[in-house]
Amino acid sequence: MTRYLLMPLGATPLILVAVFTVIWAYAIKGGILGIPVDIILVSWFFKYCYALLDAVVAGHDELPVLSVEMLNPVDEQRPLLQATMVALGFIGCWWVYHAAGPVAGLGLGALLLSALPATVALLAISDSWVHALSPLAAGRVMKGLGWTYVGVLAITLGGAALILVLALTVNSILVILALSQLVLMAMFCFIGGAIFENRVDLQLATRTYGERVAERDERHHSDDRGAVL
Questions:
Q1: What is the rounded distance in angstroms from the CA atom of residue 166 to the CA atom of residue 180?
Q2: What is the H or E stretch that residue 131 is in?
Q3: I want to staple 211 with a disulfide (CB 3.0 to 4.6 A). Which of 36, 44, 155, 207 is the partner?
Q4: How far apart are CA 128 and CA 19, in angstroms?
Q5: For 33-101, where are the alpha helices, taking DSSP H only?
Q6: CB 71 within 8 A of CB 119
Q7: What are the pLDDT digits (tens) for 150-162?
Q8: pTM score of the predicted model
Q9: CB atoms within 10 A of CB 55
Q10: What secondary structure, in 3-state letters, does 200-224 show?
Q11: 3-state DSSP call for residue 186?
Q12: 180-207 confidence digits (pLDDT tens)
């Protein structure tokens, strides 16, 4: 599993990180005027992270290059869905914290946090975003990954803690941005690697990213045709 953590150190991800880091640094220095650029870069970066996730799940050794198709806001909405799920989970924990007490709020937060990598995995392997909201589906992913899921959870929490430490201790904004992007890419690659290595237990067929996109487009086309009829 270690090789999946090292995948972002390839030439393609490093070039993207270098370009994004420079643009991001100028956008941050721009203050209010740079906020639109910040939002666009966050969207593009996490769309690329999901492209990495798809590539690793499909068993590709070479990571994809950021393309125009990946930046399409209509085609790729998984990052927005993931952010919405995290926001709703935080709001729910905040409400439970004040309504039922700190123990209940923190307990719910720990439970949702432990299921976060499973929701990312579901967004990579499921045909519908509804599955990512299903506790039963998340439980099946955890069971299918077995002890590997403990490693996935440790990498996710450790990566988040590392980014926080970088933000608090490092003075260079360029270093913080570059290392944070690499850590997030490594987290997504590790989750994808865990899915690929346990694809038999998860009852997944190994398909390429292009094949799955073609199948999804064909399914959406059939749904649209059925709605018109």
A1: 8
A2: none
A3: 207
A4: 33
A5: 35-57, 78-100
A6: no
A7: 999 999 989 989 9
A8: 0.80
A9: 21
A10: CCCCCCCCCHHHHHHHHHHHHHHHH
A11: helix
A12: 999 999 999 999 889 888 887 777 765 5
